[in-house]
Amino acid sequence: MYRLAVDVGTCNTVAVVSRPGAAPRALLFDGSPVLPSAVFVDGYGTVHAGRDAERLMADDPARFEPFPKRRVDDGAVWLGDRAVPVAELLAGVLRRVAAEAALAGGAPDTVVFTAPVRWGTARRGVLRQAAAIAGFTAVTIVDEPVAAGWYCASVLGQRLDPGRLLVVFDFGGGTFDVTVVRTDPSGLTVLGAGGLDDLGGADIDAALASYLAPGVADRTLWTEVRAAKEMLSRTTVAPVRLPGGRSSHLTRDELQHVAGPLVERAVDETARVLGGLGVRPDQILLVGGTSRLPLVASRLHARFGVVPVVPEQPELPVAYGAVIGPVQAIQPVQPQPVPYQPAPQQPAQQYPAPQQPASVVIGPGVRIEGAVHIRGAGAMPDDDDDDDHEPVEPVRRERTVRPMRWIGRTVRQLVLIALPITIILIVNEPARTFVTNLFR
User: Domain spans of the chain?
Assistant: First the structure.
């Protein structure tokens, strides 16, 4: 049976396929197992995904959405001159996955998607709709930390005896999630979960860019900073090319100084979840690209006294675990129009603005904090009941016309032309006489 598992992340998407008698393998996108989740909608309404979207963004940034998964609650997003349903944006990413899966072995017999454990029916419904639009008619969805637990036991060979507690520390590019999982004879049980939706590798990149070049907003600088950050996982110093052709460098000590407070927020959130449950971890599994920073493992070890398990490629465990784990109910879905409430035009930033720290924890005796919809003390944020939600207005990105800027630029050009002529007429008597006679 040909099986496909897809982990749609905030910043990146990973897909793994398996066949009987063969080891699972990750699909490659432009030679990499990691596909950027970014999308670009062209003038014809076609959704381009991955590195294609990042390249097209330079021509028209207003049509680019770097983190479509973050917009799952928005219904639709204004890109360029149209409102595009979020399910369509995610489907653009999944179409790319479907194309690569077909090249690897045809149409898969089983398709598994992963989702954050805090996602309820409404958000998972958007993911199912996106899968249907992309051509996947029979899918199942498993919790990301459960899939990571399967990977930990099956691929890494970690011993997970019944009753042991595994902390899945998922530090991705766009968000941070932490889940406490207990191993039972019948499988894995989620005891509690938390996370920070405003904390991820992109936030560390932004802090490093501001540290190296304060006040400079340049996408190339972010690319340089990200590459240097990843290089510092293997060495103690990394070169950085700054805007304007300048050269600089970033040391591991500087990285720890800048990223330390952000990593500490993730560790604090982990301690809060464990404290709410009244338990201590037996094992900690690091997943997500940002988890490869040595600072992450050292801070966790110092706080909890447990040496974290660090996979060689921390972006892959969730998708690998989903493809090898048990799949229960497979639910067929059919494409349906995605409802959204059209909204009046309103400006929006190209990149999501920083939000106030928010966290959500589930489990007995655990308090919910942050800006979430709460039905009662200790309740999960309920996104399953759509009747209690006001329609979300899609955000439109558009160019604005600034006539005063054009007038100012024109006046400056006229002054630059008239000034030298005036000086010549003042200091040069023959020229002044010629002009006087010309206008008589």
Answer: 1-156+314-354, 202-256, 403-438
pTM confidence score: 0.73
Q: What is the pLDDT of residues 46-87, one digit of tens each?
A: 999 999 999 999 889 999 999 999 999 999 999 999 999 999
Of the candidates 127, 147, 138, the residue with the CA atom closest to the CA atom of residue 86: 127
Domain 1-156+314-354 has CATH 1.10.540.10: no
At residue 283, what is the residue type? Q
Pull the structure tokens for residue 265.
């927020």
Pairing of strands 187-196, 35-36: unpaired
Phi (first) and psi of residue 434, to 5 degrees: -65, -45
Cβ proximity of 24 and 324 under 8 Å: yes
Tokens matching residue 348: 């929006």
Is 48:64 a contact under the CB 8 Å cutoff? no
Burial of 104 (0-12, 13-18, 19+ CB in 10 A): middle
Give, as one character, the DSSP assignment of residue 402.
Answer: -
| Cα 376 to Cα 30, 76, 96, 263, 372, distances in angstroms | 48, 29, 41, 31, 11
Residue 371 banded pLDDT, cuts 50, 70, 90: very low
What six digits make up the tokens of 292? 């490869």
